[in-house]
Structure formats: C-alpha cells, structure tokens
C-alpha cells in the first residue's frame, strides 16, 4: 500500500573535503503520498555529523529539507573513501501529529506497520581549486614532510615500517604517537637522543588539534543530548497542560452538578413547607367542626316555644 512514501534527492551525501573546515550538504524529501509522513534521520557516526532537523512531519505532496554538516577534520580517510552511512526512515502518521510527538517507537516494525527505509552513503570530494588529497608513504599530503630535518630518509623508513599501526579517532588519522615512538626506539641520531625541535613542535600541534576536535565532537554530542532533553520536556509540558485542562473541565462539571443539586434541595424545602401549612389548615378545620357538634340554638328556641304554647293551651282548657 505504501510502496514509496517519500522520494529523496539526491540519493548520496557529497561533502567537499577541506582540512580543518566544516562541510555541509542539503537533502530534500518529497512526500509522494496523500498522507502526513513523519521522518527520522540516523547515522553510524553521530559524533562526526550534525543533522538539522533530524525529525519532522511532511504534509501530503509537500517537501522538506534537512542539512547535514560534517565536522572539521584534520585529514581525509585513505583514498578519500568514507565508510559512514545514513538511514532515512519514513512512516505514515495521523494528520494531527506534530513534530514534538515523534518518538523512536513510531518507526518500529514490530506491530506490522510499514516503515520506508533508505540508506545513503557519504562521498568526499576534493575542492576544485586544490589537488586531490591522497596518501603518500602512509602519510596524507597535507601533513608536514619534515624536509628540513637531517634525518629525512630515516624518518620515512620508520613511517613505512609502522604504517599498519595507524589509528583513527573521529575520522582523523593519528600519526603523532607513531612518530614519537619511532624516533625514540630506532635512535635516528645517536649523538642526540632528543627529537628535533621542529618535529616536537609539530607533534604538539597535532595533539592540540586532535584534542580540539575531540572537544568539538563532545560539544556536538552535548548539543544533541540537550536538544533531545528539550524535546522530552516540551512533550511533558504538553501532557501536563492536557491533564490540567481535563481536570478543569471535570471541576466545572462538578460545580454545575452541585449548583443543580442546591436548587433542587431549595425547591424540595419549599414544597415541604407548603405541605406542612396545608396540614395545619386541615387540622384546624377539623377542630372547628367538633366544636359545633350538638343541637342548634334555633332548634332549642323552637322546642321551648312549642312547650310554652302547649302549657298555655292546657291551662286555658282546664279553665273552661
């Protein structure tokens, strides 16, 4: 389904190599799909290169550029051949995904998700105005030749003997330790056991430059770590803000619920008072009816009047 998400141009990283100078090249990523695509750039030599940005989101049918900077080197590798590699990973993400959401787990293939991977090799190019840098007798052309030294032939002989012992620290061939060891072991000048003054100064310069390059590599590593920590901090802050917003929403709902319950409680109290008043009125009405129970006054007056009339009639009748 996602056979080709992103097109990469160019397919190789080409650096113009100049001793003691940085070199950069730009790579363009072209999103050929209708989806949002996240990318991540990795390298086999993270201390030697700086990639900005090393992660990002590419919108559908859009492009994104990243720049790779090679740190300053003292000398090129043998035959200008570089074994460093880069890996560009791409995968489809949701539309609402932002750069801060990108993690290494997003490019994992464990869950069967499609991840496009493109390997890129590094090519070193000599400057157009400079001769091609190539090794001569095990020593690169930009290194000092010590022609003024009276022991020139003997020094070159020792270089050929120990040429297989060259070390490589951060892409720079380290010759200083070998030169010191050869001059001391073989005793180039039996009359003077100390190395020539010029050679000693060059060795010190070599050491200082090597130390500076190691410091630069550590600085780049610290910057990369600091950037990653800042990204993690941004993600944590965004997560905390989201949680705070959710708590505020729940608190607002709780306040609304409490307000509704208070209104219902007030209405219930009013209905209870009304019922109590109605009960009092009904009770008072029943009590009044009990007081009026008995013979009415008019009935008693009528009975008395009839009785008096009957007595009067009897008395009159007897008199007759």
What this model shows, in words?
With 320 residues, this protein is an alpha+beta fold. It contains four helices and 13 strands. Strand 12 and strand 13 (172-174) form a beta hairpin. Helix 2 (176-186) packs antiparallel against helix 3. Mean pLDDT is 76; it is low at 132-196. Belongs to the VAMP-associated protein (VAP) (TC 9.B.17) family. It comes from Anisodus tanguticus. The chain crosses the membrane at residues 293-315. Residues 5-125 form the MSP domain.
Q: Which structural class should the secondary elements be placed in?
A: alpha+beta
Biggest beta sheet attributes: 5 strands, mixed
Number of helices: 4
Stretches where pLDDT is under 50 for at least 5 consecutive residues are 132-196
Helix and strand succession? EEEEEEEEEEEHEEHHH
Assembly state here?
single chain
- Give the neighbour order of strands across the main sheet: 2-9-8-4-6
Tell me the layout of helices and strands.
Elements: E1 6-9, E2 13-16, E3 23-31, E4 36-43, E5 49-52, E6 55-58, E7 63-70, E8 85-93, E9 116-125, E10 135-136, E11 139-140, H1 152-161, E12 167-169, E13 172-174, H2 176-186, H3 197-291, H4 297-319
Any descriptors?
single chain; 320 residues; alpha+beta; five-stranded mixed β-sheet; four-stranded antiparallel β-sheet; 4 helices; rod-shaped; coiled coil; MSP domain-containing protein; transmembrane; transmembrane helix
Give a quick precis of the structure:
With 320 residues, this protein is α+β, with helices and mostly antiparallel strands. The chain has helices at 152-161, 176-186, 197-291, 297-319, and strands at 6-9, 13-16, 23-31, 36-43, 49-52, 55-58, 63-70, 85-93, 116-125, 135-136, 139-140, 167-169, 172-174.
